[in-house]
Amino acid sequence: MDKLYKIVNLNRPVIYIAVTVLMLLPLIKPLGLPIPVGEVTKQYKQAIDDLSPGDVMWINCAVTVEMANELVPGLTATAHYAYDKGVNIVLFAPAPAGAEFTQAVTQELIDKGAVYGENVVNLGFLPGDEPTIASFLGDVHKTAPADYKGTSLASLPMMKDIKSGRDIAVTVVVTGDASAPDMYARQIGPFANMKLLFSSQGTLWPKIQTYLPTNQVHGALNGARGAAEFESITDQKGRAMASMDATSAGWLIFVGLVIFGNLAQFLEPKKTDGGKGDSK
Question: Is residue 200 within a helix (H) or strand (E), and if so which, with residue range?
Fold first, then answer.
């Protein structure tokens, strides 16, 4: 009993080390623990599955630095999955910080085998919010005559046939901006050929839900959890699944420590009075 007590009676340094190691491991190498997948995530995937090779996906990356941990996994997983299906991808940043992330995703796709100008084009940051979006959907080349490097869109093979919103099959909005659902629903609505998808921060989820029953939004990822669900059903072990695995590991550690603590209390050697009897 004494030996068992020494095993379960962990001291603080051991607990700190165990918690740190067990929560870091999933971040380094995702475990791929099962995650229940919501219906809206399945709809998001289905909207991409419905695309044919050569169809165009327009990704609007309104990600700022403080949103990155929650939103970049969904952005990356979506771009990689679409590219693997042969979909052509146009990236655009309505926020200055978003241009950094569109460039990172563009480079990841190029490293994967995409040919810039044929499979993917990065327009970089275009200021103007809703007026710019409306203008872009009306005339792509007039609104963005060049890509982020200054290369004329007319010289890029992929962009020759993308003239307006009528040539775009899916728009994906990656954002935490509360005005985005209303804004994009207004601008995408007139284009019957185009589906609207969101990969958003969790705080935006209640607003996005109001557009789902009317099919103004055809699918959505709810923050890092939604991105993890999407990674799970598309066989991508990325940053979102890693964060969910780390969270699950944290709860498992907590449960384990509770069990060890109760065992330690139960097995603790009983104190005696040192053999002294009654003085009377």
Answer: strand 195-200
Grouping H, G, I as helix, E, B as strand and the rest as coil, residue 52 is coil
pLDDT digits (tens, 9 = 90+) for 149-203: 999 999 999 999 999 999 999 999 999 999 999 999 999 999 999 999 999 998 8
Residue in the structure block whose two tokens are 């969904």: 74
> Tokens 């607003």 label which residue?
207
Which amino acid would we find at residue 72? Answer: V
The answer to whether 208 and 217 are in contact (CB under 8 A) is yes
The two three-digit tokens of residue 103, written as one number: 């460039």
Res 280: pLDDT:
43
**For residue 186, how many other CB atoms are within 10 A of its CB?**
13
Q: Which two tokens stand for residue 21?
A: 């190691």
* C-beta atoms surrounding 216 within 10 Å: 18
CA angle 73, 79, 84 (to 5 degrees): 125
Q: How many residues does the chain have?
A: 280
